[in-house]
């Protein structure tokens, strides 16, 4: 993957559209091409006898008139074709083979973070790569191989030992069989526990919150065995309904559940590509009356697999999102990606499924 730099992109491409505006003396109905040809033929038959006595001038007007009607027919056909294409792209999103691949964020000490994740959270170091010419290092950690599990991609930029997490990022979720036992282990290793084990507000699930050395929060959720222990990424949004619509339409996610907690003045929505007990999901949180958040420069993005980054970028644009990197191959490794922002400014990178597997080889 490309280097993740602290500053967000300022590129703001705009959508373009094609509009037909033609005024003609004879307005044809918006109908099928065959009907339009029949109407044009009827006009042709009725006009020719009347045009003959008037010579070249009338003949020229007649040709211009027929030409105008042809443009209208072509315009209507193109508009219909464009609408159909747009509809096809958005329908394709629902059928695309998508999966959350990894979450990317920045840390100030790579070795310290790897030690904490492996010893306290039970993750495995899957791979590590250093790019000295670009002055950064990546490490991938998780609970299973990258080709079938959601994992973490840590980025260390040379010489940068601290980042601002901001108020928009919430936490990562990890499913464990015994929250209290896990918390005791983390305490023994010197980890920070910010919420002791106990039922979640407004529910029965036993949870706890801990913090890693850089201040990122992890929610420990007590659940039975699961194939995807790294199970959640929580982000705060300013308009939950708008966010849900975008994630469904542009990202092809399914709204798994939605829960309002008026007593604590917040609402959450879980979205993903499969059931929560078997897949990683997005947890979007809306706090009553809060429409904007400081995103800081620590959290970077989610990566999602797709069969076609070009169609994905088109779907994002059609859904009102911003494409910050047009679809295409990355220099050097030829992995095709596209990057975009949701309505709240959270970044997502879509990666070609086949290219991603090749990159792992």
Overview of the structural elements:
- The protein has helices spanning 33-51, 55-95, 110-119, 179-188, 240-249, 309-318, 353-360, and strands at 99-106, 124-131, 136-142, 151-157, 169-176, 192-199, 206-211, 217-222, 230-236, 254-261, 266-272, 281-287, 299-306, 322-329, 336-341, 347-352.
- Strands 2-3-4-1-13-16-15-14 form an eight-stranded mixed sheet.
- The protein is of the alpha+beta class.
- The model is unreliable at 1-63 (pLDDT under 50).
- Helix 2 (55-95) packs across helix 6.
- The longest helix is centred in the N-terminal third of the chain and has 41 residues, at 55-95.
SSE layout:
Layout: H1 33-51, H2 55-95, E1 99-106, H3 110-119, E2 124-131, E3 136-142, E4 151-157, E5 169-176, H4 179-188, E6 192-199, E7 206-211, E8 217-222, E9 230-236, H5 240-249, E10 254-261, E11 266-272, E12 281-287, E13 299-306, H6 309-318, E14 322-329, E15 336-341, E16 347-352, H7 353-360
Parallel strand pairs: 1-4, 5-8, 9-12, 13-16
Antiparallel strand pairs: 1-13, 2-3, 3-4, 5-9, 6-7, 7-8, 10-11, 11-12, 14-15, 15-16
Concise synopsis of the structure shown:
By secondary structure, the protein is of the alpha+beta class. The chain has seven helices and 16 strands.
Number of helices: 7
Radius of gyration: 28 Å
Largest sheet: 8 strands, mixed
Low-pLDDT runs of 5+ residues are 1-63
Give the proportion of residues in helices: 25-40%
Overall average pLDDT: 83
Q: Name the overall outline.
A: globular
Q: How many runs of DSSP E, i.e. beta strands?
A: 16
How far is it from the N-terminal to the C-terminal residue, by CA? Answer: 14 Å
Strand/helix succession: HHEHEEEEHEEEEHEEEEHEEEH
